[in-house]
Design brief:
CATH architecture of the largest domain: 3-Layer(bba) Sandwich
CATH superfamily of the largest domain: FAD/NAD(P)-binding domain
Number of strands: 26
Bound molecules: flavin-adenine dinucleotide
Structural class: alpha/beta
Largest sheet: 5 strands, parallel
Oligomer: single chain
């Protein structure tokens, strides 16, 4: 359908309001303009800063190699109104109004893109020297801490903990990572896959203490559950994140068991004219037959295109766009480039490619004979080819898959 026909056929969606000016919110506003929407777009964000990208915060920004990571988007020329430093406090769907710190904002369509917020360590709040790493302000507070080359304790050996420890070691700090589980990334990866990653900590000079819980944090020390004390000039808490949706309580918008907005396959919420996208929302994956809550950058990039298409298409009776991605993310840790595509929870078989004690290897997950997920360490070509094979659901030959000298794309059955 031509842009003109879309315009003519559209029922009046004159005002789209997007809450949350992170990746998902900004991309929604941009995608609306790219797809030809000509009404008002208002982007409302709680943070005072020009909208910025988060992945560099635990990498270049932390080490002072980059000043910031503001998105390269010219909001003015796209005619996107941005209201920064303005927190949304609630939604009244019956009135089509959003309540903000600076007053009510009417909408025809509302997009929720409020992301996630870090889980706090009980009892550690307010203790001097305790940090989180989610925002630009957090990264700016941590930068001088690294520069002082202090003793640092990181709580949690997840993605953020590993990336922060990498940066802190590079800056010359003594780093101890305390993890309650028996291995790093216990919530994300099976034991066999996380096992080689344990050695990465030691190789970088980071002390990793697994099966260890924090009893309490005191100024200058972390007290562990076995009674031992770790000296800590700074403590960085990286124990996960949860959807930033507390402000939606009482709105009638359905929230799931993790506090996330429950969206449908078109990224619509349970309430008419309200969509949700990015870290704050889960969606039903037709591909994997499960509801997915994805806290990664690519989801905040891709989801908004579906939201924009449905806002425009909904008005012109075009068939709805369905969001059914192959999830993707990457992490840079301990000198390695780690990439993951798919969703391995549904797999019934695992196949290794390459020597897992070496610098480059891949693990593939199959369900029956189809590739459903892969994790590639230092093998970006495997990732790129594997992602396409997952999408195409082509039957694979497990023996060929196990041969790291053979391109993954040639390992089909
Ligand atoms: P967010 O980026 O959280 O943005 C949401 C915005 O909404 C925030 O600015 C918030 O202040 C605002 N907001 C919240 N509540 C309200 C309210 N009530 N009113 C108004 N505004 C509100 N992913 C990868 O795949 N690879 C990586 O290497 C990687 N590195 C990362 C490093 C760090 C340090 C962090 C924190 C995340 C990283 N991620 C990475 C994850 C990725 O950045 C997120 O998945 C992505 O930022 C999600 O975008 P979002 O817009 O949904 O949410």
């Amino acid at each position: 359908m031509s842009e003109q026909t879309r315009e003519e056929g559209r029922s009046p969606v004159r005002r789209v309001v997007v809450v949350g000016a992170g990746m998902a919110g900004v991309q929604t506003a941009v995608a609306l303009r790219e797809q030809g929407y000509r009404g008002t777009v208002t982007l409302i964000g709680a943070e005072p800063h020009q909208p910025y990208d988060r992945p560099p915060l635990s990498k270049a920004v932390l080490l002072g190699k980059a000043e910031g990571s503001a998105f390269d988007v010219d909001f003015e020329s796209l005619d996107i109104e941005i209201r920064l430093g303005s927190e949304a406090l609630g939604v009244r769907p019956a009135d089509h109004e959003l309540d903000t710190e600076t007053g009510p904002v009417p909408y025809d369509v509302l997009v929720l893109a409020t992301g996630a917020e870090p889980i706090r360590l009980p009892g550690a709040e307010g203790v001097p020297g305790v940090h989180l790493l989610r925002t630009l302000d957090d990264a700016e507070r941590l930068r001088p801490v690294l520069a002082r080359q202090h003793d640092i304790v990181v709580v949690g050996a997840g993605w953020i903990g590993a990336e922060f420890a990498t940066a802190a070691r590079e800056a010359g700090c003594a780093v101890t990572v305390v993890e309650a589980a028996d291995r790093p990334l216990a919530g994300a990866l099976p034991a066999e896959v996380a096992a080689p990653m344990t050695a990465w900590y030691a190789d970088s000079g980071t002390e990793l203490r697994t099966h260890t819980r924090v009893e309490r944090v005191e100024p200058g020390a972390v007290v562990l559950d076995d009674g031992s004390r770790l000296p800590a000039d700074a403590v960085v808490v990286g124990i996960g994140a949860r959807p930033a949706t507390a402000w939606l309580a009482g709105s009638g918008i359905e929230l799931g068991t993790h506090g996330e907005v429950v969206a449908d396959a078109q990224l619509r919420t349970s309430v008419p004219d309200v969509y949700a996208v990015g870290d704050c929302a889960s969606f039903p994956s037709g591909r994997y037959g499960e509801r997915l809550l994805v806290h990664h950058w690519d989801n905040a990039l891709q989801g908004p295109r579906t939201v924009a298409a449905n806002i425009l298409g909904g008005a012109t009776c075009e068939p709805p766009a369905v969001y059914d991605p192959v999830p993707y993310f990457w992490s840079e840790q301990f000198g390695r480039f780690v990439q993951y595509a798919g969703h391995h929870a549904v797999a019934d078989r695992m196949v290794w490619r390459g020597d897992r004690s070496g610098p480059a290897w891949t693990v593939c997950w199959l369900r029956e004979d189809r590739l459903v997920a892969l994790l590639a360490v230092g093998r970006p070509r495997d990732l790129a080819q594997g992602r396409r094979l997952i999408e195409a659901a082509r039957p694979m030959n497990p023996e060929a898959l196990a041969d790291p000298s053979r391109p993954l794309k040639d390992a089909t059955a």
